[in-house]
Amino acid sequence: MSILNTQSVGLTTLILYLLSTFHYLLFLTTRKDKIATVGLYASRIGFLTNGLFIILLIMEKGSSVLFTPKGAFALLAISVISVFLYFSTKYRLHVSGIFLTPWATLFMGVSLFSKGIPKNVFPLGTVGTIHIISAFLGYAAFMFSTIVSILYLILESQLKKKKFSVFYHKVPSLRLLENIIYKSITVGFTLITLSMFSGAIWSQKLFGTYWSWHPKQVATLITWFIYAAILHLYIGGKWHGKKLCYLSIAGTILIVIDFIGINLLFKGVHSF
Amino acid sequence: MGDLKLCVAGMNHKTAPVEIREKFALKDEKLEGAILELNSLPSVDECMILSTCNRVEFYFVTRNDNPFLSVKTFLSKLSGLSEDELNKYLYFKSQEEAVRHGFRVASSLDSMVIGEPQIIGQFKDAFAKAKEMGTAGVVINRFCETALKVSKRVRTETGIARNAVSISFAAVELAKKIFGYLSDKNVAIIGAGEMAELAVKHLITSGVNKVFVVNRTLEKAEKLAKEFGGKAFKLEEIESVLTMADIVISSTGAPGYVITKEMIEKVESKRHGRPLFLIDIAVPRDIDPAIDKIENVYLFDIDNLKEVVEANLEERKRAAKEAEGIIEGCVHRFLHWLKEHEVAPLIAELKQKAERIRKEELAKRLSKMNLTEEQKEQVDYLTQIIINKLLHTPITTFRQKAPDEKAYIKVFREIFGLTKE
């Protein structure tokens, strides 16, 4: 590892994300599309170095590094960036970068400056990998739906108040935003479901039980039911527009409480 | 004789009032006559006239050190204004300023409404006219082609023309902000009015699904419905129209509210939360403003639409600033080309001279020698190589230095014995 120093790859990623965040914020004030493009490319390269960082970490310390704050936050950062890159490229929703890149930067920063010494060591295997990656990508998708929900609420309130700022000119239509929220929730929901099933199988392999009533499992189950309800109500045509946005934001807040709170309060398989 | 220059003399809506501009208004035969007359001035090499209702501009290429002297006399004769008056209303720009001005005009930065698209067509027409009359030479050709390219870049890169700047287009823009695409949306027009009808026409062009026309009398409604290819309704049927429509444009002469809050609340349950976009162009207003409080209902009155237009104009001004940067780069590239262009004929002349001497000498010597075809080819090739290698350094040095140091041109001419100016 003399040529590719893991920590410096991580630092490069952080700098790229910072650069991306800076350009997106600059885009908000100058409104020049070219500046947003710089932000997008910085994110794209950052995505690659972030991936490299995780691979190097695993090569150096073994797959158990993913159970440490260092590994977990690096994974969270790349999850957020992948979801952002997927949707912003598909729907040309560059404005979402303004809200998403700061989070990726934060996660990467936390990862870079936290410890990577694993406490519990579990054999990862295919099921374990699926469990972890689908969980993180799922969270990132929910996070993205929240950010688009915020964009929706901003545009909606500007249309109601008849005040028009950069969001009026750069955000696509309400219908498209709603569509994206629905799609990212669907993607997140699918991934979380996958994560729950693979987690159960993994748990059976490791501990001989599918379900252990750990607070995190319970909280995730509650989140799962809430998102299932959101999707059900949306497809049924009962809840859309602003209501969908509020629910999506509430869902993400719950996940954040879930993620941070449970790690702080309870010790166990799911804590660092 | 001086350097080759691109110049412009002209006036626009900012520098001259309409009664002055109309003295220059040139159309058809008058325009053709003016182009030919301008081109016939001894100092003018090439020319083009851009004449629109907001501006009249005379672009010309000259080597004269005092480029506007004879042009002013021509303009004075054309308009009947004295030269003092011309100085008051006209701008005279040359080289960098003229090129920048032309690019700004073609990019619609100099227009009354920044970013309006008509000027591009008008600029193209002016260029085509100059080509047709044979007054557009290499410089005008290059200038116009570059100007049109710049204009295209400005439009795509800055999005200067993206946002609506008229009330009726603002209505369409808002509809798209709410609904995205309009192909599955229905529009209803209540009453009749020029602006409302215009907005409906724009919506139809944007591909709305169905058009409903509502009027106090069915007869009037049917007449308008026929024009739009829509369906006619009486005012009493307004509630069923409100259930079906997604976009409603109201413009009646009624003194009270035609659409009340109760009406919308009543139809809301049948609409299943589909957003409703209401536009009230009538004064006094047709739609109860309290309706805007209802969720998923967006009501815009004439003042709100004006605010959208204002915000969009601001956005265009911001894009215009970005455009100036694009233009600046292109101006310098064009000026560089212009300088190089002056040098090109001399280089061509030197190459022709060398080739002529080579051909003459070859013809003389080869006939006296007894060579095979292959040997003849070898000799031909050899002479070519010598000339190319010998001329390479002088030509490249000249091409690099001459645009900035005029002395090179004189020396180049004298050393190689090229034609005098």
From TrEMBL, chain A:
Residues 73-270 form the Cytochrome c assembly protein domain. InterPro entries: Cyt_c_assembly (IPR002541), Cyt_c_biogenesis_CcsA/CcmC (IPR045062). The keyword Lipid biosynthesis does not apply. It comes from the Bacteria. One of its GO terms (cellular component) is plasma membrane. The keyword Membrane applies. One of its GO terms (biological process) is cytochrome complex assembly. It is found in: Membrane. The chain crosses the membrane at residues 6-26, 38-59, 71-88, 95-113, 133-155, 176-198, 218-237, 244-266. One of its GO terms (molecular function) is heme binding. Pfam families: Cytochrom_C_asm. It is a multi-pass membrane protein. Keywords: Cytochrome c-type biogenesis, Membrane, Transmembrane, Transmembrane helix. This is Cytochrome C biogenesis protein. The lineage of its organism: Bacteria, Pseudomonadati, Aquificota, Aquificia, Desulfurobacteriales.
Automatic annotation (TrEMBL), chain B:
The active site is at C53 (nucleophile). Gene3D superfamilies: Glutamyl-tRNA reductase, N-terminal domain (3.30.460.30), NAD(P)-binding Rossmann-like Domain (3.40.50.720). Pathway: Porphyrin-containing compound metabolism; protoporphyrin-IX biosynthesis; 5-aminolevulinate from L-glutamyl-tRNA(Glu): step 1/2. Residues 322-418 form the Tetrapyrrole biosynthesis glutamyl-tRNA reductase dimerisation domain. CDD domains: NAD_bind_Glutamyl_tRNA_reduct. The keyword NADP applies. Possesses an unusual extended V-shaped dimeric structure with each monomer consisting of three distinct domains arranged along a curved 'spinal' alpha-helix. The N-terminal catalytic domain specifically recognizes the glutamate moiety of the substrate. The second domain is the NADPH-binding domain, and the third C-terminal domain is responsible for dimerization. This is Glutamyl-tRNA reductase. The gene is hemA.
